[in-house]
Fold Dihydrofolate reductase.
Amino acid sequence: MTARVLLPWSDISVPAELDTACWDGSGSPPPDLDGVEFYVLPYDQGSEPPKLIARLPSLRVVQTLSAGYDNLLPLVPEGVLLANGRGLHDLSVAEHTLALILAAQRDLPRWFAQQRAGSWAREHTRSLADCRVLLVGYGSIGKAIERYLVAGEAEVVPVASTARAGVHGIAELAGLLPSADIVVLVLPDAPRTRGLIGPAELAALPDAALVVNVGRGTAVDTDALTAEVAGGRLRAAIDVVDPEPLPPEHPLWTLEGAIITPHVAGGSASFHPRAKRLVERQLAHYAKGETLENLVG
Amino acid sequence: MTARVLLPWSDISVPAELDTACWDGSGSPPPDLDGVEFYVLPYDQGSEPPKLIARLPSLRVVQTLSAGYDNLLPLVPEGVLLANGRGLHDLSVAEHTLALILAAQRDLPRWFAQQRAGSWAREHTRSLADCRVLLVGYGSIGKAIERYLVAGEAEVVPVASTARAGVHGIAELAGLLPSADIVVLVLPDAPRTRGLIGPAELAALPDAALVVNVGRGTAVDTDALTAEVAGGRLRAAIDVVDPEPLPPEHPLWTLEGAIITPHVAGGSASFHPRAKRLVERQLAHYAKGETLENLVG
């Protein structure tokens, strides 16, 4: 029997020896899934696609297009390989991070409000150039953000979990906060990152510093951040928050110094071509019996 | 008599042999300006600072902090040197250009509207990565924009007035428009640039292309752009427009596909340290009798 692959797209190159079926996560999955050996989960389509794993008796490989995979570990049977989407979202997240930073530094909320009012009134703004940017989380996303910041002549201060040449360790964070104009958090949710930026860390930042969070909301104490922004001392530009969704009545929504986007940093068009290229490579590896990329779990 | 310099700031290094006076362009100029040989015009302070030129009998040098200087030529007496602020605004303009592009590609107006409504609703967006960006105007500002675009993995297609290795000539523009995802205009106001992007050029762009203007508004036919954006076929993100200010009742203000900022690309914080460093160098040159930088006119 020909090996089948279940894919979220119909427009990618698949080795001739593989048979394909397509499901983008909407509606019902196609029938006749007994032969599916390789399942590429549709991206960001909720809880139904992972549930299908249990209904694929011939399954050998699960490919997720997310970087995170903790939610899948309990669902992937013993002996089935799991590969993740490490790297696919780096550029999308970096781009959105720059959008948040520049929106805050160059006063986009003010200009958009003036636009709605049909008002043309000029004022000088902050800049990104020359700012000292603490980049907390220095994996592949952090490095993609750094390339943008370097192009913009900001001063980048990388911080990772452990110190190495040119990179500060997280233990040095307290000493770095007082001289930061901008702090960018690119951290996963983990016991070591939860509440990392609490009242004391926020208090250590200089007046008017900008807190940017594009990792996971749990890295920042939301109440403490809300208090500092409400008091006018700090500014915030965040794509993630704890809790998500931020409740409609939360005071952070309406603060003048806050910019909030709804966890959309990773979900842009740049993801799709990169995801398709990864899956094409993985299917070629699979057809030839080679080791897959991005294996986890 | 000690040579005097009239400066917009009091916090820069001045050679010991020069006497200083300070005027930031607000209120009245200081008294006793007869000895002023070197006048640094306050930046972006309207028409009063240039008028002072006529009241400085010992004047030898006028330093403007703008790149443009056409308005000063009739005011600078024969034999007085004029130096401009070429390069000081490059990074500020590049930064704002990226802010406009990313705001459009990553849907910031939508997220800001949701924020005002306290609404958390996710959707995937466009990206800058992989976009083909026509960069029309390839001087020092264009190159600063290019560095950002390269960091973001966009494909940059530079266009200058004349073709050279790796750079298209403006005569090739018509052939380049149909494959552009984004067109960035960084052009001065001049007979050759006025109306460069008219109805035919806009019609040549593919559906959903983004027109970005950070040079001078006259490069684009505003009525034609308004019609294409109103029809939903093109998008616009502009910092300059013809006329400026855009009248309050102009239909472009309220179009969903338009982002408008009020000619603020050059006026950000990154300008000031660069302007101060230039003036410090110029005063050192002047004190030593060396040739000044950025001489024009």
Observations:
- The mean pLDDT of chain B is 95.
